[in-house]
């Protein structure tokens, strides 16, 4: 069976690896001139690490990743609001949580894809999917036309041709905040490399994820109106002003991160939808279920898609249409919960009402973090053979 995957991000490459391991002929079509590590970094939570292990690349990724044992929540005045023991999550799920730069994750996925003989076609921007008497045709801006047995739409949240084919529209939803993301390198040991720092303010949040004592990736978010989102996001001065006076080392990190290493991201997700396939076209990753970064699960759910889809193909005796429907049914509830959970958390974090933020911080100080860790582990294990 020949499969064409539109998009060479985490979802596209992981799906290519998973299906190629089943003996399928797989081609990846990437619109850019190379596989891109868009974004600063991610935490591969244990559900992601499980899939990476199944793909045969966990050990390689571990050699490039950091280790993390806790996440500290801290208020704008430096008060500790709570501490989540990440080791409880790892122990419950049986796999490690690994913070890693996104570019390193992408290179590991790319090497494995190429080792398996998957063909990757760059500068291949899909512009349309159409029906003919022989099935579906995918058309590209460079004049190429293909008619594979199956088309996997892993072409992202913002301009997915595959989602437009399946759902008729592709309408990302702005969620009221912008992020600046960056990668910081220090000549001196600046970070407790085992602890994530999560700083909460009034309509603002700053997160620091160390990879080592010298390197961390970070994300700074502020609430904005949709009309000003893009203008605000381009303004580095606004970034510095928004987090002026926040607890150390936030000011130093912003000031000393090279501006070329700081990227603006205007945050959109998608409303959940019940149908992920039409004819021979199936959506995965952000094209199917884009969640906000506040979910902490974007890349992990893309990886889960790859594993679950391959599992359906390996164990089902039904038609491709039956397999796509079963895959959607298997993944829909979990990804919907993650989308809505990411929205709810963002709404809480970027609240600009002082009284409500004070109550939020008080609730965080009174939270049962051990129970929270087990609840997270249980939710992230759903649909996977992790014993929870």
UniProtKB/TrEMBL annotation:
InterPro entries recorded: FAD-bd, FAD-dep_Monooxygenase_BioMet, FAD/NAD-bd_sf
UniProt keywords, alphabetically: Monooxygenase, Oxidoreductase
GO molecular function, one term: FAD binding
Domain FAD-binding: residue ranges: 2-333
Family matches, as PANTHER family: MONOOXYGENASE, PUTATIVE (AFU_ORTHOLOGUE AFUA_6G14510)-RELATED
Protein name: FAD-dependent monooxygenase
Organism of provenance: Aeoliella straminimaris
């Amino acid at each position: 069976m020949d499969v064409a995957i539109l998009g060479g991000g985490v979802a596209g490459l992981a799906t290519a690896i998973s299906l190629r391991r089943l003996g399928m002929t797989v081609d990846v079509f990437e619109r850019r001139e190379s596989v891109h590590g868009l974004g600063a970094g991610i935490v591969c939570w244990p559900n992601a690490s499980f899939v990476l292990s199944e793909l045969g690349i966990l050990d390689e990724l571990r050699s490039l990743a950091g280790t993390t044992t806790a996440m500290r929540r801290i208020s704008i005045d430096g008060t500790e609001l709570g501490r989540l023991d990440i080791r409880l999550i790892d122990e419950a799920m049986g796999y490690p949580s690994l913070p890693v730069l996104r570019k390193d994750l992408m290179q590991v996925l790319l090497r494995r894809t190429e080792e398996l003989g998957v063909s990757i076609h760059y500068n291949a921007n899909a512009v349309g999917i159409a029906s003919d008497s022989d099935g579906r045709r995918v058309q590209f801006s460079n004049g190429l036309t293909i008619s594979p047995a199956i088309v996997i739409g892993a072409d992202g949240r913002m301009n997915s041709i595959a989602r437009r084919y399946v759902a008729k529209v592709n309408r990302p939803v702005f969620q009221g905040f912008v992020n600046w993301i960056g990668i910081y390198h220090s000549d001196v040991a600046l970070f407790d490399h085992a602890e994530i720092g999560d700083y909460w303010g009034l309509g603002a949040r700053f997160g620091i994820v160390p990879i080592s004592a010298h390197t961390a990736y970070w994300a700074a978010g502020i609430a904005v109106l949709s009309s000003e989102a893009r203008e605000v996001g381009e303004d580095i001065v606004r970034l510095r002003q928004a987090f002026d006076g926040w607890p150390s080392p936030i000011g130093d990190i912003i000031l000393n991160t090279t501006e070329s290493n700081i990227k603006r991201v205007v945050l959109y997700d998608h409303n959940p939808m019940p149908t992920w396939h039409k004819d021979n076209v199936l959506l995965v990753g952000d094209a199917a279920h884009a969640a906000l970064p506040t979910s902490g699960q974007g890349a992990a759910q893309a990886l889960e898609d790859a594993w679950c889809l391959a599992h359906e193909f390996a164990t089902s005796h039904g038609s491709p249409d039956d397999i796509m429907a079963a895959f959607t049914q298997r993944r829909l509830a979990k990804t919907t919960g993650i989308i809505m959970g990411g929205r709810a958390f963002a709404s809480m974090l970027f609240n600009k009402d002082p009284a409500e933020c004070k109550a939020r911080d008080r609730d965080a100080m009174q939270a049962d973090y051990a129970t929270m860790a087990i609840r997270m582990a249980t939710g992230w294990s759903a649909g996977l053979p992790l014993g929870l």
